[in-house]
Specification:
The complex is a heterodimer of chains A (282) and B (294). Chain A is an all-alpha fold and 282 residues long. Chain A has 12 helices and no strands. In chain A, α6 runs antiparallel to α8. Chain A starts with 5 loop residues before the first helix and ends with a helix. With 294 residues, chain B is mostly helical. Chain B has a domain of 198 residues: MetI-like (MetI-like fold). Chain B has 11 helices and no strands. The longest helix of chain B has 39 residues. Chain B is flat. Classes of the chains: A mainly alpha (282), B mainly alpha (294). Chains A and B meet through α3, α4, α5, α6 and α7 of A and α1, α2, α4, α6 and α7 of B.
Chain lengths: 282, 294
């Protein structure tokens, strides 16, 4: 390769100053960002009481706990654990279903193509947002105050948390629906409810069914933890066994959760495929 | 104006109608069957979860009045009539909220660094050995299936009470979740730059650094920011099990029925989550915007 003659180079340099000399701000932006991120990270480590000695001692302790966990062994409480697992699955299924049923009408109110008026839609959306801003565990604590300890509080907690999430997801699915079918219903003389039932629902329901199945799956995971605050299910057993340091039982319970989540994963995958396949046929 | 609609001869029509009816019938039967199974599953679940509509109806008033109570100060006035009294502990709560965000930040960043190191081993196209890929993938699956609060419970036992357990729990969970997303991005890259770098005799690490990383940086940053946002939510409840942050104050307020404190802390958490939500959204927009321009 030969270099360009100097006058040519000068001309190019004058024409594209950005390429030859990037401004200092552009060149320094990335290192500055990395430096800032690292500085906050270091500050965090100090502020949150990280010290090599504590880490070392902790990992030593953790290693010891892991040794104690092997082999996983339920002792004599296997039947109780199976009941608790059933409870957890029940909480996930019921909570998701209730949340979806309540969210469906509300999501219609939050969808732009159903309620064009922003004044009405805006508060509904913000309401759903604030419900989603609060964690399932917090809802569980609130419901325990209302209906007492036990799995019922868990069902209601999952239902409320899902209501917020579904309301948003459903309304997005409704907004993405094709307008032509709704117009077709209107052209043949249908009223607003007919439009929703025959124009919108056939398009939206398969999407919604897929989302509900996905949530049942992810709620199996959430349902395992709400027991930690006393809302029933396998989390209650897990938290208790951790507190009394029965590590073999703890590892057995964790294994049970992993197997249950994998099983639900597999089933809902099959079901989702069946629903989408059915839709392709229809 | 009348339009003649062509009508098929009745014999032909009858056959078509029959086929249509049979097809619809099959669909309806399948739908009814699926609904029946679903309802049966719900019934079993309702028994399993000790659902009692009676309790629900009797106590639903409590739920509504709970919000009434958390909106009332001890003096009986509405909370917004005396902001100073409502947020009496704002200094303490803000510090704890800052700690919550810091827990999430340190946990996410540490998790992202680990996931970054591991994901090249887990992606189909860059993994140096199949057995290594299998092992790393299973490890990540384990990390993301066990909920972060369960890790926190165990870490509190090992590392003692305090935010350190929360940070480590969030870190482990983020390694699992981010590792999967990262490796999916890596599986979708263009392999030609990698071949180019390898043809110069570069080592595996050089291949990753010079050929893969420039293609994936924006996607990684975007997922990491999303994870940070999720982790702020997760860190707000870490205090429930003694792993630091605002959760400790909240659980005490709820359990001891300090009603106006509950609403004050909840409001602060929700606002923080909103702000982080909008902030990360803005940063992600900037990152991707810059990428499009380049």
């Amino acid at each position: 390769m030969s270099l360009l003659p100097p006058p040519e180079r000068e001309r190019l340099r004058a024409q594209y100053p950005d390429v030859f000399a990037r401004p200092a701000s552009a060149r320094l932006a990335t290192p500055a960002m990395i430096l800032a991120a690292a500085a906050i990270f270091a500050f965090g480590l100090v502020d949150l009481d990280f010290s090599p000695a504590r880490l070392l001692a902790g990992f030593h302790q953790l290693g010891w706990i892991t040794m104690m966990m092997i082999p996983p062994d339920p002792g004599s409480s296997l039947p109780a654990y199976l009941v608790a697992l059933g409870e957890t699955l029940s909480i996930a299924l019921l909570g998701t279903t209730i949340g979806a049923l309540v969210a469906l009408p509300v999501s219609l109110l939050a969808a732009r193509n159903i309620v064009p008026s922003g004044i009405f839609r805006f508060p509904v959306r913000r309401f759903l947002d604030s419900i989603r801003g609060v964690d399932t565990l917090i809802w569980a604590l609130v419901w325990i105050n209302v209906v007492g300890l036990g799995p019922f509080a868990g069902v209601l907690a999952i239902a409320v948390a899902d209501f917020g999430a579904f309301g948003k997801l459903f309304s997005e699915a409704i907004e993405a629906a094709d307008k032509k079918q709704v117009e077709g219903i209107r052209a043949s003389g249908g009223n607003a409810l007919h439009e929703i039932r025959f124009g919108l629902m056939p398009q939206v329901l398969p999407v919604i069914a897929g989302q509900v199945l996905y949530f049942i799956e992810s709620n199996t995971r959430s349902a395992t933890i709400i027991g930690i605050v006393g809302a029933g299910g396998i989390g209650l057993q897990l938290a208790e066994q951790i507190r009394v340091l029965e590590w073999q039982k703890v590892s057995f319970l964790i294994l049970m959760i992993l197997v249950a989540v994998a099983a639900i994963d597999w089933i809902s995958g099959k079901l989702r495929f069946a629903i989408i396949g059915q839709r392709a046929l229809a | 104006m009348t339009v003649a609609v062509p009508v098929l001869p009745s014999q032909q029509l009858a056959a078509l109608n029959e086929t249509y009816r049979a097809a619809m019938m099959r669909k309806r039967i399948r739908f009814a069957l699926a609904s029946a199974i679903f309802v049966a599953a719900l019934m079993i679940a309702a028994i399993g979860a000790e659902v009692s509509p009676g309790t629900f109806v009797a106590k639903i008033g409590n739920f509504v009045s709970y919000f009434d109570r958390i909106a009332t100060l001890e003096s009986g006035a509405r909370v917004w009539s005396d902001i100073g009294e409502w947020f009496w502990g704002w200094q303490k709560w803000l510090t704890l909220l800052g700690e919550t965000i810091l827990i999430s930040y340190v946990g996410t960043l540490a998790g992202a660094i680990l996931a970054f190191a591991l994901n090249f081993l887990a992606a189909d196209n860059t993994s140096p050995a199949p057995w290594l890929r299998f092992a790393v993938k299973r490890l990540m699956e384990f990390c993301r299936t066990v909920p972060d609060i369960v890790f926190a419970l165990i870490f509190v036992m090992a590392f003692g009470l305090g935010p350190m357990a929360g940070v480590l729990a969030i870190m482990i969970h983020s390694v699992g979740a981010l590792g999967k997303l990262y490796s999916e991005i890596v599986e979708n890259i263009d392999m030609k730059p990698v071949e180019g770098v390898r043809s110069t005799g570069a080592s595996w690490i050089s291949c990753m650094w010079f050929a893969v990383v420039p293609q994936i940086a924006a996607g990684f940053a975007s997922y990491t920011l999303l994870r940070f946002e999720i982790n702020v939510r997760g860190a707000s409840v870490m205090g429930f099990v003694g792993a630091g942050g605002i959760g400790q104050e909240l659980v005490v307020a709820i359990r001891k029925f300090y009603y106006s404190d509950v609403s004050a802390i909840l409001l602060m958490i929700v606002v923080t989550v909103f702000v982080i939500d909008i902030g990360t959204g803005w940063v992600r927009g900037r990152l991707f915007g810059k990428d499009v321009r380049a």
